[in-house]
Every structure is written in structure tokens, then in C-alpha cells.
Amino acid sequence: MADVASGSIGANGAGSAAPGERVPELSLKGISKSFGAVQALKDVDFEVYAGEVVGLVGDNGAGKSTLIKTISGVNIPDSGEIYVAGHRVNISTPADAVHHGIETVYQDLALCDNLDVVANLFLGREDTSVRLGPLSPMTEIEMERRTVEVLRQLDVKIPSVRSVVASLSGGQRQSIAVPKTILRNARVVQLDEPTAALGVAQTKQVLNLIRRLREQGLGVVVISHNLADVFEVVDRVIVMRLGRRIATFDVHATTPEQVVAAITGAEFADVAENGDASEVAQQA
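Above: the chain's sequence. Below: its structure in C-alpha cell form.
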């Protein structure tokens, strides 16, 4: 990736691709969003490449959720541009985002506890291509076959694809919420706090699932407050503060302490005390 350097790599990594440079699977340029007098996003650039996991971090109120909802079509930006695979697109509804291959798995997972795994994966998208009658067994068989296939592809282990969701653990629920995005031919998957409230074993299961998504060539965005989990699976960390993207880090050339400093603003306060105002202006 052309924009990745050692340590902090600047505030804005998005831009026009030079000849021979990789084009981001998803990129945002100059995104701003206000809610009345509150400026939630201020001229934010963002990018994620195919086969890359990006961690989006920041304190409460930093703008992470607003950015994710803008990408997923819940919020309409006041200004800025969105590109998918280098082509400018208009995303004004969640259906637009799905049409362009952008899927979001929110923290509540949006699963139906009283239905089994197959029914949840195909909810609202039941396969009706083969119908021998109102309750065609061929349709059920095909959906079950595709469910088994995608779970095997992502190395998801559950007791049975006919297990009712209410009987599954938190990690297993997260692991069946994500395959829904694969069945919809996603290009980019956003995961909102995927390991929140999970135990050690369940967290490991979800982190392995994120690695599988990267291996499948998807662009993955992980929103998390848990920096240990972030450093476990991501390639880059993008830090937001007060509605702005203020720093980007290559996880192989930085430390959690440096990321925390960027999140809290301590890094920039230290620079200001040393009198290098130009560096502060460049990163802020």
C-alpha cells in the first residue's frame, strides 16, 4: 500500500491513485456531516484496500459511528465523495451500500433468536429459484448447502446449521452474522465492536474469522475500543478525534501507547510544548 510508512503516516491517506498504484476498494474524500450545531465529521478522508483490515479507533464522540453509518448509507454526508473500486458512487440509503458491496455488522448483530442458522443467513433473501410447491424441499436443501459451504470457507465451527440461534454462544452468533455478508458478495465488511462482551475463547474465534475475511480478499473495517484486539488482526489503525481523522499508523511500526496518545491528543500536546506547531498542523 502506497500510503503506509513507518509509524504515523499522516492524517489523510486517500487520494487519486498514481499509475501502477493500488486503488482502494473503498475510499472517502472530504466527508463532512453536521447534526444541527454539532459538527460530527470534518473533511474526513478514509480508505480500505482489498485484502486489508483497517482498525478505526477513537474516544467516545470522535465520529467513528457517524463515519460508519455514512459509509453504510444510514447518514447522508453534507459534502464529500465516496468511491468504490475507483468509481464515484452515491450512497444515500443502506440499500445503496449493499448494492455497491458494502456490508455492516452492527453490535446487536440483527439475528432472530428463534430461527436456525440457515434461516438467519437467508432471512429476507430466501432462495426461490427452484419451486416444486409452496414448501419446496429443493429450496431448503440448496440454502443449507450454501450455508455449509460459506461456513466452511470461513472456518466457522458451530454444532449444526440447523441450531437455533438462541442456543449459540456470543462468539458463535458473531460468526454467523458475518457470513451473511459473504452470501451477498460483499467487497467491504464493517464490523462494529465485534469482540465486545465476549470471553477469551470467543474473542479468538471472532479474530480468526476476521483473518479469514482478509484471506478471502475483502476489505475489512473493525471499529473497536479494545486495542489489544485491534493490534492482533489489523494492518493499519486510523485514529479519529473530534470528528477528524488525525493519524494513521502501520501496526507493525508502532505501539499501542502511540495510538492511545493520538486518541487522547497527548501526542499533539507534547509536540506543541516543544514549539513545533507546523507538525501539529500537519497531523491535525
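Confidence is low (pLDDT under 50) at residues 1-6, 10-15, 271-284.
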